From TrEMBL, chain A:
WD repeat segments: 62-104, 105-136, 281-322, 331-365
Record GO biological process: maturation of SSU-rRNA from tricistronic rRNA transcript (SSU-rRNA, 5.8S rRNA, LSU-rRNA); protein ubiquitination
SUPFAM superfamilies assigned to the protein according to its UniProt record, in alphabetical order: WD40 repeat-like
Superkingdom: Eukaryota
Pfam families with a match to the protein in the record: Sof1, WD40
Descriptive protein name: DDB1- and CUL4-associated factor 13
Species of provenance: Guillardia theta (strain CCMP2712) (Cryptophyte)
From TrEMBL, chain B:
Region (Disordered): 1-61, 313-384
InterPro entries assigned: BING4_C_dom, WDR46/Utp7
GO cellular component, one term: small-subunit processome
Annotated keywords: Coiled coil, Nucleus, Repeat, WD repeat
Main location: nucleus
UniProt feature, compositional bias: Basic and acidic residues: 49-61, 346-384
Taxonomic lineage of the native organism: Eukaryota, Cryptophyceae, Pyrenomonadales, Geminigeraceae, Guillardia
Protein name in UniProt: BING4 C-terminal domain-containing protein
Length: 448, 384
């Protein structure tokens, strides 16, 4: 007779001392997990509810400016360095870890229109209404709030007021925009190149982070223009129905960029194919003034005249998150932090606000087990995201009444237009009123 | 207000058939099978070709990818199918890491397994296991009903005449026993100073110590249950309760987060909280609990009808909440609005009055029918 029965030694299954970790045994056999799917659904539902409970996105406010904040930049080297310029000409360098400004100075007469860090993060460039471009050192031994006359390390003089500035990703070159786009070499007092393509004023300019010599600008004649600074020529021009206020390249798919448009939407374009947008990002109810990509390239943040900040996935038509505050005014500028965990917004109310990129995420470092649990719950939330309750709870966001009303009104207007178009189509010759894709509707023309 | 549409849908989904997952029959399946064969254990994937044991870790039919036209969706489903397949393969592969193996009983030579007595088995197994063969002599208040807890650690015995006992089988002692049952309501609140209900029987006896013994002839068996995660069969009979060894009957590997025989106090508390958090909603308890998360492939018209009902319910509720709109600016007085409203209110009194008037009218008409009125009728002589 051969016999063997299940026989367990208790010490193999329990811990010896209280300080030991509790022994855990898994058996994935489905027979041991009755009602598995129903229970996991319940877990997913609880998880989305808890997300709502823990959603406390506002971290802190960085106050100090005495006028509306007009521009923003983060260092490409240090996570904590952020510079901001305001409408009274003040320039401030912030330390995000403490929330204090490290130094401040009256940099320009009139607005500071643009600010950017040099590629090594040691210098700061600013431009303003006073036709000057100035370079500042990062480290000044000045007390917080002290009004010391900090001197610029370099000043370049232009012919006209500037509206924006950007630093080259590899070389020490500066691009400014205003009446034209200028490329500056800090060693020279005159611009290296002047680039223009029939526009009155260029409102934003951005170097491509991968193809370093490609430059994109948006102008008040509703155009988006690409340039090559090696040949100092313009490459392509795209005209939309309304003006694009700001442009931002996707840092991971650097042939794609997104523009913040005056028509309440954002548009993602492929620089190689201008005949259609890749995606139209809707949700704002007023002009979008600024946009910034997370370094991961998976998300971007946008700020609008409707006093809300929204976070979009790079390929999603609707925002995944909206932030607003009772006292928060028009957003002029937004920024994603270098670690993609924080979002900054600068508004008319003289404040810079620091938000979490994921509203319910914990700020403290997580234990590995906590981390694993959250990953598991994320997976469950994803699996059951289409079920009615999970969808409803996870999508719901509280909105100020004005924005809610505006959203509804926009819906009514859209429906009415559609109805009218359909009626026209019905009473026209077949094919006379063609269907135009949403992604092509706003494109007026493309020039080479 | 009962949501009729929702209710209907629930009932429908509850009775919907969910097809069992098709067996995996591609290369991934081969892999699972080969691993399972090497891992041995209680995995029933040891034998024939076309073995279905590999599907132990699969959870239903595969999705049909071929017909999907949406490229993005197609890719997503393809990827998720691959993940499911890999998860099943990995689970099968990880079987060799499970700490315990199933028991077995084999006959050698001329032996027959059904001839083996418990005393033979007892001699052949280790001391710990041999202690699992015992009989509780409980003749006075029997016959007894019994049940094991989900983890197999606790045994509950209940005699027909009111004797109750809970035994901890791991420690081998009776946790509590007696003839007195108290039911407490809101036991944790301060107000509860006495039990909600009590049940008392006159019997007085403690549990007998477990004598080792085999089943005797001529006993009447009442209940039979296998003990979870052990090779043990519990039998309650006319003489009390017996526990015998049945090699190979139990699942050797438990899952700590489902049912843990070695659970400590803290783990038990955690588990209770989690069980409460994950308690299923009443409308999810059904014959087929897997309906949640399935795509509703029912008849389109039925789904549309359900949606319409739900919408109507919402609409009426919303209309009820809606404030009355004020038209006719300036001429709109509260009194007028009230009157207007009252116009359509159906009251019993009003209805009576209406009926009364209608009745009168009818009478009149009847009369008129009988006696047609002409111009010269007034000069007619009444004949009475």
């Amino acid at each position: 007779m051969k016999v063997k029965v299940i026989s367990r030694n208790e010490s193999d299954y329990t811990r010896e001392r209280k300080s030991d970790i509790v022994k855990v045994f898994h058996n994935p056999d489905p027979a041991l997990h009755p009602f598995e799917r129903a229970r996991e659904y319940k877990r997913a539902l609880n998880a989305v509810k808890l997300d709502k409970v823990f959603a406390k996105p506002f971290a802190r406010s960085l106050s100090g400016h005495r006028d509306a904040i007009s521009c923003f930049a983060r260092s490409k080297q240090r996570l904590v360095d952020v510079a901001s310029g305001s409408c009274d000409g003040e320039l401030r360098l912030w330390d995000l870890s403490t929330g204090n400004s490290r130094w401040s100075t009256i940099a320009h007469t009139g607005f500071v229109r643009g600010v950017t860090f040099s590629r090594d993060g040691e210098n700061l460039w600013s431009c303003g209404d006073d036709k000057l471009v100035k370079m500042w050192g990062r480290d000044y031994e000045s007390e917080v709030g002290e009004e010391r006359a900090v001197e610029p390390e370099l000043t370049l003089m232009g012919q006209h007021a500037f509206l924006g500035i950007d630093h080259h990703w590899k070389e020490s070159l500066i691009a400014t925009c205003g009446v034209d786009v200028h490329i500056w070499d800090p060693q020279r007092s005159e611009p290296l190149h002047t680039l223009s393509w029939g526009s009155e004023s260029v409102v934003s300019v951005r170097f491509n982070p991968v193809e370093h010599n490609v430059l994109a600008s948006t102008a008040s004649d509703r155009s988006i223009i690409l340039y090559d600074i090696r040949t100092a020529t313009s490459l392509r021009k795209l005209v939309l129905n309304k003006r694009s206020n700001r442009l931002c390249w996707n840092p991971m798919e650097a042939f794609n960029f997104v523009v913040a448009n005056e028509d309440h939407n954002l548009y993602t374009f492929d620089m190689r194919k201008f005949d259609s947008a890749l995606c139209v990002h809707k949700d704002h109810v007023s002009a979008v003034l600024d946009v910034d990509f997370a370094p991961t390239g998976r998300e971007f943040v946008s700020g609008s005249y409707d006093r809300t900040v929204r976070i979009f996935k790079y390929n999603a038509g609707r925002s995944r998150e909206v932030y607003h505050g009772k006292r928060m005014q028009r957003i002029w500028s937004v920024l994603f932090s270098g670690d993609a965990k924080w979002v900054l917004s600068a508004s008319d109310d003289f404040n810079i606000r620091l938000w979490k990129a994921n509203a319910s995420e914990s700020v403290k470092p997580l234990l590995p087990r906590e981390q694993r649990k959250l990953e598991y719950l994320d997976k469950l939330k994803d699996r059951f995201k289409e079920t009615a309750d999970v969808k409803r709870i996870s999508r719901h966001r509280h909105l100020p009444k004005a924005i809610l009303k505006a959203t509804k009104l926009k819906g009514i207007i859209k429906d009415s237009k559609k109805r009218k178009e359909n009626n026209v189509r019905k009473h026209s010759k077949p094919g006379a009123v063609p269907y135009v894709a949403e992604r092509k509707k706003e494109i007026v023309k493309e020039l080479e | 207000m009962a949501k009729e549409g929702k209710e209907r849908k629930r009932k429908r989904m509850e009775h919907a058939k969910v097809p069992a997952r098709r067996t995996l029959d591609d290369e991934g399946d081969e892999e699972i099978r080969s691993w399972r064969q090497t891992s041995g254990g209680n995995a029933n994937g040891s034998s024939k070709s076309g073995d279905k044991g590999a599907t132990k870790y699969s959870r239903g039919d595969k999705n049909v990818i071929r017909k999907i036209k949406d490229k993005k969706l197609k890719m997503q489903i393809k990827r998720s199918e691959r993940d499911i397949r890999e998860a099943a393969a990995k689970a099968a592969r990880a079987e060799i890491l499970l700490p315990a193996e199933a028991g077995h009983l084999e006959a050698e030579g001329m032996e027959k397994t059904h001839r083996f007595q418990q005393k033979d088995i007892k001699q052949a197994v280790d001391i710990g296991s041999s202690k699992k063969i015992y009989t509780l002599r409980l003749e006075e208040f029997g016959p007894y009903s019994f049940d094991y807890s989900r983890s197999g650690r606790y045994l509950l015995l209940g005699g027909k005449l009111g004797h109750l006992a809970v035994c901890d089988l791991l420690l081998g002692n009776a946790m509590c026993f007696g003839t007195h049952v108290e039911l407490w309501k809101d036991a944790l609140s301060e107000r509860a100073t006495s039990p909600y209900m009590t049940h008392h029987t006159k019997a007085k006896q403690s549990l007998a110590c477990p004598p080792p013994a085999d089943l005797e002839q001529g006993m009447r068996v009442k209940d039979v249950y296998f003990r979870p995660f052990e090779d043990v069969l519990g039998i309650s009979h006319s003489h009390g309760f017996s526990s015998i060894l049945v090699p190979g009957s139990g699942e050797p590997n438990f899952d700590s987060f489902e049912a843990n025989p070695f659970q400590n106090k803290k783990q038990r508390r955690e588990a209770e909280i989690h069980a409460l958090l994950e308690k299923l909603d009443p409308d999810m308890i059904s014959l087929n609990p897997n309906f949640i998360g399935n795509v509703d492939t029912y008849d389109k018209d039925v789904i549309a009808e359900e949606r319409r009902l739900a919408r109507e319910e919402n609409l009426t509720e919303r209309q009820r909440q809606k404030k009355e709109k004020r038209h006719a600016r300036g001429r709109d007085r509260a009194g007028k609005r009230y009157k207007k409203k009252q116009f359509n209110v159906i009251e019993e009194r009003k209805e009576d009055a209406r009926r009364h008037i209608a009745g009168k009218k009818e009478d009149k008409e009847d009369k008129e029918d009988k006696e047609p009125v002409g111009v010269l009728d007034r000069f007619r002589v009444k004949l009475d």
